[in-house]
Automatic annotation (TrEMBL):
PANTHER family: ADP-RIBOSE PYROPHOSPHATASE YJHB-RELATED (PTHR43046:SF16), GDP-MANNOSE MANNOSYL HYDROLASE (PTHR43046). The lineage of its organism: Bacteria, Pseudomonadati, Bacteroidota, Sphingobacteriia, Sphingobacteriales. InterPro entries: NUDIX_hydrolase-like_dom_sf (IPR015797), NUDIX_hydrolase_dom (IPR000086), UDP-X_N (IPR059176). GO terms for molecular function: hydrolase activity. The keyword Repeat does not apply. Keywords: Hydrolase. This is NUDIX domain-containing protein.
Length: 201
C-alpha cells in the first residue's frame, strides 16, 4: 500500500503543478484527469470521502510541496502537559495546526494556542522535526511538523469549538491519540525531564 500511495502522491504533485501553470487547454484536461484518477485511488486506499479529497486537492493547486504544521508542548508546575480532546476525530492531542500562508511557524503556534486554549505562550525551543508520509493515519500527502517547547505567558484555559476538553494531563493516562501525538507527547515529556546542561564558563 505504501508504494501505491507514494506513486499516487507523485501523480497528484504532477497534476497539481500542471493545472496551475499550463497554458495549453488540452494539457489542462489531461492534468485534471490525472488529478481525478489520483483522487479516486486515494479514496479507495485510505477510506476518505472522495468529495472531501477533491476539495482538499483543488485548494492546494500550485507547485506541490509538503504541508507544514506546528505543535506545542506546554507543562504546568506539576509536570503535566496541556492536551485537548479534539472534536474532529474524538481523540487526544497537543495544541497546534497548519502554518498559514505568510505566517512563520512560531507565530502560527502562538495563534493556535490562543484559538484553541485562550492562552498566550512563547515557543522557546524546538524539540524536534518529524515527517508524516502518505499512508499512516489515512493521510494522502506528505507533511512536515515542528514540535516546540512552550512557556506560559498569560491567560486562563478556555476550550474552543475544536475541543471537547482541554487541560493539563499525565500523557500516560491517555490511550486514544490523534495520529502520532502520543509519540510527540512522550518526546515532550523526555525533553521536559532532561537535566539542564552544565556548560563550562
Amino acid at each position: 500500500m505504501k508504494n501505491q500511495l507514494d506513486l499516487l502522491e507523485k501523480i497528484y504533485a504532477l497534476a497539481q503543478t500542471g493545472i496551475k501553470y499550463t497554458r495549453n487547454p488540452f494539457d489542462l484536461d489531461r492534468y485534471q484527469t490525472l488529478l481525478a484518477i489520483a483522487t479516486d485511488e486515494y479514496s479507495q486506499l485510505t477510506g476518505l470521502d472522495t468529495e472531501i479529497l477533491r476539495e482538499r486537492f483543488n485548494n492546494d493547486l500550485g507547485y506541490a510541496t509538503p504541508k507544514f504544521g506546528v505543535n506545542g508542548a506546554l507543562f504546568n508546575a506539576e509536570g503535566k502537559i496541556l492536551l485537548e480532546h479534539r472534536t474532529d476525530d474524538n481523540l487526544w492531542g497537543l495544541p497546534g495546526g497548519w502554518v498559514d500562508v505568510g505566517e512563520d511557524p512560531v507565530s502560527a503556534l502562538k495563534r493556535e494556542f490562543v484559538e484553541e486554549a485562550s492562552l498566550v505562550v512563547e515557543p522557546v525551543e524546538l524539540i524536534n522535526f518529524y515527517t508524516r508520509l502518505p499512508g499512516p493515519f489515512a493521510q494522502p500527502h506528505t507533511s512536515v511538523h515542528a514540535l516546540y517547547f512552550c512557556r506560559y505567558i498569560s491567560g486562563n484555559i478556555t476550550k474552543s469549538i475544536e475541543s471537547f476538553d482541554i487541560d493539563y494531563f499525565d500523557p500516560a493516562t491517555i490511550t486514544a491519540w490523534h495520529k502520532d501525538h502520543g509519540e510527540l507527547a512522550r518526546q515532550a515529556v523526555g525533553y521536559f525531564k532532561k537535566p539542564p546542561l552544565n556548560l563550562p564558563r
